[in-house]
């Protein structure tokens, strides 16, 4: 498999949504109906639009941009033979930015907006990595919500949504 980075959308909003959804599923339970309610499913569309992240400039005269794409490779090793598994080589490009911003915008009617906001904020801030090489120290991230600061009550409400 060979993956290249789109210069237009280095990190699509749909991929970012998927990573945050995976975190919500890990914390609340993958089959928890709240996860489908907030992030969408095959039966119901997501009531939120996730924009693609855009790198931020840190100096007044700096042009914000993603770091140049760098090649990377990954291979799956067989646990018993300690050799490469046939057809399991991935060659891809990787990029990053010091920081980037994105927006999550409501696109449909939501009955319990506070519940959705709790899930989005807590799951986003609990997300610590993204990308295919995130287990190797690459892709570590921190996501901060600029419009809803989570507090102890937010986390408590979020945890009450957890299913065994």
Automatic annotation (TrEMBL):
What's any GO biological process attached to this entry?
defense response to virus
* Entries under InterPro entries matching the protein: RAMP_III_fam
- Record keywords: Antiviral defense
- State the source organism's domain of life: Bacteria
**Which positions fall inside the CRISPR type III-associated protein domain?**
6-141
Q: Outline the subunit composition.
A: Part of the Csm effector complex that includes Cas10, Csm2, Csm3, Csm4 and Csm5.
In Swiss-Prot or TrEMBL terms, this protein is called: CRISPR type III-associated protein domain-containing protein
**Could you tell me which species this protein originates from?**
Saccharopolyspora elongata
Upper lineage: Bacteria, Bacillati, Actinomycetota, Actinomycetes, Pseudonocardiales
């Amino acid at each position: 498999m060979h993956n290249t980075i789109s210069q237009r959308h280095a990190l699509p909003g749909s991929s970012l949504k998927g990573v945050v959804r995976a975190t919500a599923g890990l914390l609340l339970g993958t089959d928890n109906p709240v996860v489908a309610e907030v992030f969408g499913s095959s039966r119901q569309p997501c009531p939120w639009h996730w924009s693609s992240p855009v790198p931020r400039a840190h100096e007044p005269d700096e042009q914000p941009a993603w770091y140049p794409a760098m090649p990377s490779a990954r291979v799956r090793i067989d646990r018993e033979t300690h050799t490469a598994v046939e057809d399991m080589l991935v060659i891809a490009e990787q990029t990053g930015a010091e920081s980037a911003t994105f927006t999550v915008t409501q696109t449909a009617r939501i009955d319990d907006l506070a519940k959705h906001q709790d899930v989005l904020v807590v799951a986003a801030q609990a997300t610590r990595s993204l990308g295919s090489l995130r287990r190797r120290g690459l892709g570590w991230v921190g996501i901060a919500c600029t419009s809803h600061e989570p507090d102890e009550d937010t986390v408590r409400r979020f945890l009450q949504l957890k299913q065994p």
